[in-house]
Amino acid sequence: MSAPVFLAEPGTLAGVGTGDAYLLDGTEGRHAGVVQRRGAGERIDVVDGAGVRLRTVVETVDPQGLHLRVQERVEEPAPAVALVLVQALAKGDRDELAIEAATEVGADGVLPWQADRSIVVWRGDRAAKSRARWLATVRTAAKQSRRACVPQVGVALDTKGLVDRVSACVAAGGAALVLHEEATTSIAEAVLPTGVGPGGPVECLVVVGPEGGITERETEQLTQAGAQAVRLGPHVLRTSTAGPVALALLAARLGRWA
Q1: Which reaction does this chain catalyze (predicted)?
Q2: Which of 42, 99, 101, 214 counts the most CB atoms within 10 A of its CB?
């Protein structure tokens, strides 16, 4: 069974290596020691959310936190093709369900999209609070799925902003796939990036519309910017499930699940 994962504050794992002592304190230390009651001799992993993983054993527990001994330091390389879910804002918690599952599947980033048919609108204080919930969601999902990397959460884009992002992605050697039930190309036939663009690793954007679907105008604008309209399968999925399913298929195609 894999060890539970706890998140360290950014930068605190720099210079920590095999054989070193490490103190897991703060909120994560309290959660591990008080809530989960981790004790001496147990294995836990500490990650920084950016690919560094410390495989450790608990030596002692006290009010400061967990005193750990590092058995191994692992630095997981960034993928050659970053999978980014562009999730349209949806009512209820369907968009959050989508990014939670996408994180577990292996998304490297998520982008909120204010689509034409999105019922939910992010503005002002609501935008900041909603993005904070997305950040908390991917953080928790990354820990649950034992990941060393926490997906980046972008700021909300309107359709013009998304079109610009798609255009830049394709120009850099990446790809953008728009999930559309009327597309004639299946996701299995979509042209994916090789992983090396003019500037190095590239992105594969996966665009998922809201409950009411993507409008013809949005589809036209995105495809004119270089996106490929693709069909996910024989069934129409909810906005909360379409993205994770698409990412799983792409992860398999890219050899991540080999």
Answers
A1: uridine(1498) in 16S rRNA + S-adenosyl-L-methionine = N(3)-methyluridine(1498) in 16S rRNA + S-adenosyl-L-homocysteine + H(+)
A2: 99
Tracing tokens 């379409």 back to the chain, one arrives at 242
Integer Cα distance of 17 and 78 in angstroms: 20
Provide φ and ψ at 233, rounded to 5°. 180, -165
Question: Is the CB of residue 71 less than 8 Å from the CB of residue 78?
Answer: no
Which of 171, 164, 245, 174 is closest to 208 using CA atoms?
245
Radius of gyration of the chain (CA): 20
User: How far is it, in rounded angstroms, from Cα 89 to Cα 72?
Assistant: 40
- Give me the pLDDT at residue 31, please: 85
The phi and psi torsions of 119 (rounded to 5 degrees) equal: -75, -40
Residue that is written with structure tokens 């398999």 in the block: 252
**Predicted confidence (pLDDT) per residue in 167-207, tens digit:** 999 999 999 999 999 999 999 999 999 887 777 789 999 99
Helix H or strand E encompassing 176:
strand 175-179
Which of 159, 181, 149 has its CA nearest to residue 246? 181
Going from N- to C-terminal start, the domains of the chain cover 5-75, 81-253
pLDDT digits (tens, 9 = 90+) for 197-234: 777 789 999 999 998 899 999 999 999 999 999 999 88
What is the bridge-based pairing of β-strands 157-158 and 175-179? unpaired
Per the CATH hierarchy, to which homologous superfamily does domain 5-75 belong?
Answer: Hypothetical PUA domain-like; domain 1 (2.40.240.20)
Which structure tokens are listed for 46?
């500490």
